[in-house]
């Protein structure tokens, strides 16, 4: 596809132009990003090294933590560095790569959350057939489909972005590249592209959110037949999943299911799902999960023992 544009780079305005606020942004988001990396990598390491966490639920949690790490890395490092710079520019090709990675890992996160809901549904509603339905081969195939589906979605975003001509203004009033801010800069009618964007990203967000909430309603309804202990454990897991779903999908639905008009609060809402959710996910999943906490303690005590032996 030929690139129909004269613009070779874009200027990112970031969250603020005020020098003092930029320093606050730098410190705050550096802490957030390091917290995300630490939390996600701790979960990834714990699941990979612990034999107690070999069930499908933790297989999906491993992939969720992996997508969290990559999703946050596609936005945060550049945003943190930009907060120190006076002029922040991003080349056209870098902008396209950022759109691809943002949508790829964001969509992957959505699909993994759906798989986690399916896993909880089978575990709670079909407990006797759980290991047959959610076998290692099935889980691997489902995750592979999630990765391929995410690639298809983000490729569609890139095709839409490359179809737009950019010949005039190159200032993006945001802290990262996304299709909505780019649509405002295109020197052509963007009605059709915007319609395709809403029907692609917007539909994925909305349909997935409705599916997830509906599945959790079914799961919670079926818990009435369980014992008090079983109900308490399943409820704890499901509530943590529901919190993650609402935190991630609320802002996404607000951003991607409306026409390409930008509001002043868009940037702050985007912070919530690009920086906030990847930070909250490890906290929510570890703080509400005794098995993960126990495995982390064992991993940590093993490390301390091996260090002492040295």
Automatic annotation (TrEMBL):
<feature type="domain" description="G-protein coupled receptors family 1 profile">
    <location>
        <begin position="39"/>
        <end position="285"/>
    </location>
</feature>
<dbReference type="InterPro" id="IPR050427">
    <property type="entry name" value="Olfactory_Receptors"/>
</dbReference>
<keyword id="KW-0297">G-protein coupled receptor</keyword>
<keyword id="KW-0552">Olfaction</keyword>
<feature type="transmembrane region" description="Helical">
    <location>
        <begin position="235"/>
        <end position="256"/>
    </location>
</feature>
<dbReference type="Pfam" id="PF13853">
    <property type="entry name" value="7tm_4"/>
</dbReference>
<feature type="transmembrane region" description="Helical">
    <location>
        <begin position="268"/>
        <end position="287"/>
    </location>
</feature>
<feature type="transmembrane region" description="Helical">
    <location>
        <begin position="201"/>
        <end position="223"/>
    </location>
</feature>
<feature type="transmembrane region" description="Helical">
    <location>
        <begin position="57"/>
        <end position="76"/>
    </location>
</feature>
<keyword id="KW-0812">Transmembrane</keyword>
<protein>
    <recommendedName>
        <fullName>Olfactory receptor</fullName>
    </recommendedName>
</protein>
<comment type="function">
    <text>Putative odorant or sperm cell receptor.</text>
</comment>
<keyword id="KW-0716">Sensory transduction</keyword>
<keyword id="KW-0472">Membrane</keyword>
<keyword id="KW-0675">Receptor</keyword>
<feature type="transmembrane region" description="Helical">
    <location>
        <begin position="96"/>
        <end position="118"/>
    </location>
</feature>
<feature type="transmembrane region" description="Helical">
    <location>
        <begin position="24"/>
        <end position="45"/>
    </location>
</feature>
<keyword id="KW-1133">Transmembrane helix</keyword>
<dbReference type="InterPro" id="IPR000276">
    <property type="entry name" value="GPCR_Rhodpsn"/>
</dbReference>
<dbReference type="InterPro" id="IPR017452">
    <property type="entry name" value="GPCR_Rhodpsn_7TM"/>
</dbReference>
<comment type="similarity">
    <text>Belongs to the G-protein coupled receptor 1 family.</text>
</comment>
<dbReference type="InterPro" id="IPR000725">
    <property type="entry name" value="Olfact_rcpt"/>
</dbReference>
<keyword id="KW-1003">Cell membrane</keyword>
<keyword id="KW-0807">Transducer</keyword>
């Amino acid at each position: 596809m030929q690139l129909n544009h004269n613009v070779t780079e874009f200027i990112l305005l970031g969250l603020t132009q005020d020098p003092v606020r930029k320093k606050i942004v730098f410190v705050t988001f550096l802490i957030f990003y390091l917290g995300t990396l630490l939390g996600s990598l701790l979960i990834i390491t714990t699941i990979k090294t612990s034999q107690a966490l070999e069930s499908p639920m933790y297989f999906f949690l491993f992939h969720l933590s992996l997508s969290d790490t990559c999703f946050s890395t596609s936005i945060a490092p550049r945003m943190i560095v930009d907060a120190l710079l006076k002029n922040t520019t991003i080349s056209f090709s870098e902008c396209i790569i950022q759109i691809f990675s943002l949508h790829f890992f964001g969509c992957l996160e959505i699909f993994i959350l759906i798989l986690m809901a399916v896993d909880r549904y089978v575990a709670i509603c079909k407990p006797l057939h759980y290991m047959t339905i959610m076998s290692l081969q099935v889980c691997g195939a489902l995750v592979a489909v999630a990765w391929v589906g995410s690639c298809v979605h983000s490729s569609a975003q890139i095709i839409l972005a490359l179809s737009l001509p950019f010949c005039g203004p190159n200032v993006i009033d945001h802290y990262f590249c996304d299709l909505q801010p780019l649509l405002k800069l295109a020197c052509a009618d963007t009605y059709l592209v915007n319609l395709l964007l809403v029907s692609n990203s917007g539909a994925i967000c909305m349909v997935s959110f409705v599916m997830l909430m509906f599945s959790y309603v079914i799961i919670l309804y079926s818990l009435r037949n369980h014992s008090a202990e079983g109900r308490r454990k399943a409820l704890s897991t499901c509530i943590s999943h529901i919190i993650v779903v609402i935190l991630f999908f609320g802002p996404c639905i607000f951003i991607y299911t409306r026409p390409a008009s930008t509001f002043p609060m868009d940037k702050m809402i985007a912070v919530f799902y690009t920086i906030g959710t990847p930070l909250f996910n490890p906290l929510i999943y570890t703080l509400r999960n005794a098995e993960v906490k126990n495995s982390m303690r064992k991993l940590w005590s093993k490390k301390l023992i091996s260090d002492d032996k040295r």
